[in-house]
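Justification of computing resources. Each target in the renewal requires a structure prediction run like the one illustrated here; the chain below, 198 residues long, is used simply to show the kind of job we budget for.
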Amino acid sequence: MKNKKITRKITQGMYVLTTQNGGCIVDAVSQISAGENPLVSVAVMKKNYTNELLHTNDKLALSIVGMNTNPDIIKTFGFNSMRDINKFEKVETNEVEGVPVILDSLGYMILEKVDMVENDTHTLFIGKLIEADVFKEEDAMSYGYYQEHKEELLKVTTEAGKTAWVCTICGYVYYGEELPGDFVCPICGVGKELFQKK
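Resulting structure tokens:
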């Protein structure tokens, strides 16, 4: 494959997916039917703890990331695991239908899970829209914008005096003189060829 980065041109929005006891950043979200309760699909990487939670939880929320949403929300939900930290500790949320929604967002959709489709790397969760609200009438952040402005949005800082390798896709930082031969990013799953030495 010559350059799979072309897939970044399939631009969609940026969302904070939340469910009971977890959440993560997602971008692969699509409305797949119309009507009173349209169906919405969202792909979640299998390595994410949120994926594990969604196999047992019946509801999830998608909070839409806006151009003016605090970038720390992307850092918190995109580069950490609930196995290690409480992502909700420093983020203001409100509970709707038993699921936390992010208040610093453009609004939210609450989905009731109706189906799941498994593939090698992701699970496609399909949910029926049962509740939604708009908080702000502002432009949503696209995945394309995020990729183009990721460095300034995330401002990855590294520890002084240490060799750091930064994932160019998600911003994860690995410390060490060299990356292990079979290293893959624990957050987004890309190989070491997509890491830059800092």
